[in-house]
C-alpha cells in the first residue's frame, strides 16, 4: 500500500486547525508549496518535508507512523521498518532510502535507521545540522562523510560517531550502493 503524503499532510494540517497559508508562514515556505504537496503534484525531499512539518511541529517519524499497537513492540521485521522516503525521491538519480526501526518515536530518545545511498546520492550541498549525536556502521559499499572541514571515505566495517551540531553531509560518488545502519539521539527525522 502506497503512503499518500498529500492526504496525510492535509489531514494533519486540518486537525491542527491551520490553513495552508498559516502552515506556509510557520514553515517558511510558500502556500503554493503546501498546496502542491497536498495535491500530490509535488513530492517533497526529506529535507523539504521536514521543514514543512516543523511548522506543525511534527517529526518525519510521527508523520509516517501508523497507529502503534497497545503493547510495546520490541522486535521489528524488515517489512515493518518505516519508510521515510517519498516515491519521487526513489525514482530520481542518486536515491537515498531511509528506513526507520519502530514507528512512533515520541517516547524514544534513540532513532535507528537502515540507510541505502545509491551511486550519486547526496544529502545536499547545504550541510545538515541538528542537536543530536549520531553514529553508524557501513555494512556494504563506500560513503564519503564530511563533518565540519574534515572529509573521510568510509568502507565496509568502518564506523563513525560525531556531534550532529557540527555541519555534516553524506555523499556516494562511487559506482556501487552504500548500505549503513545509523543511530541518532535524540531522534532527528
UniProtKB/TrEMBL annotation:
The UniProt entry, under CDD domains, shows: cupin_XRE_C (cd02209), HTH_XRE (cd00093)
> Which keywords does the record carry?
DNA-binding
Source superkingdom: Bacteria
Q: Where do the HTH cro/C1-type domain residues begin and end? A: 9-63
Fetch the InterPro entries from UniProt: Cro/C1-type_HTH (IPR001387), Cupin_2 (IPR013096), Lambda_DNA-bd_dom_sf (IPR010982), RmlC-like_jellyroll (IPR014710), RmlC_Cupin_sf (IPR011051), TransReg_Diox_bact_type (IPR050807)
Annotated Gene Ontology cellular components are: cytosol
Gene3D superfamilies documented for this protein: Jelly Rolls, lambda repressor-like DNA-binding domains
Alphabetically, the GO molecular function entries are: DNA binding; DNA-binding transcription factor activity
Keyword DNA-binding annotated: yes
Indicate yes or no for the key word Cytoplasm.
no
Endpoints of the signal sequence: none
A Pfam family the protein falls into: Cupin_2
Name by which UniProt lists this protein: Transcriptional regulator, MerR family
Q: Which organism is it from?
A: Caenispirillum salinarum AK4
Amino acid at each position: 500500500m502506497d503512503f499518500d503524503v498529500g492526504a496525510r499532510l492535509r489531514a494533519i494540517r486540518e486537525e491542527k486547525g491551520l490553513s495552508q497559508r498559516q502552515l506556509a508562514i510557520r514553515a517558511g515556505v510558500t502556500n503554493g508549496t503546501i498546496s502542491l504537496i497536498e495535491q500530490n503534484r509535488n513530492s517533497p525531499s526529506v529535507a523539504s518535508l521536514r521543514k514543512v512539518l516543523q511548522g506543525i511541529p511534527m517529526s518525519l517519524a510521527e508523520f509516517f507512523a501508523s497507529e502503534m499497537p497497545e503493547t510495546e513492540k520490541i522486535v521489528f521485521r524488515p517489512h515493518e521498518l518505516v519508510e521515510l522516503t517519498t516515491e519521487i525521491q526513489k525514482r530520481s538519480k542518486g536515491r537515498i532510502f531511509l528506513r526507520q526501526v519502530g514507528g512512533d518515536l515520541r517516547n524514544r530518545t534513540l532513532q535507528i535507521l537502515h540507510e541505502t545511498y545509491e551511486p550519486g546520492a547526496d544529502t545536499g550541498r547545504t550541510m545538515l545540522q541538528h542537536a543530536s549525536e549520531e553514529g553508524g556502521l557501513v555494512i556494504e559499499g563506500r560513503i564519503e562523510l564530511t563533518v565540519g572541514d574534515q572529509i573521510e571515505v568510509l568502507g565496509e566495517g568502518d564506523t563513525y560517531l560525531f556531534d550532529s551540531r557540527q555541519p555534516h553531509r553524506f555523499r556516494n560518488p562511487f559506482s556501487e550502493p552504500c548500505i549503513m545502519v545509523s543511530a541518532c539521539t535524540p531522534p532527528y527525522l
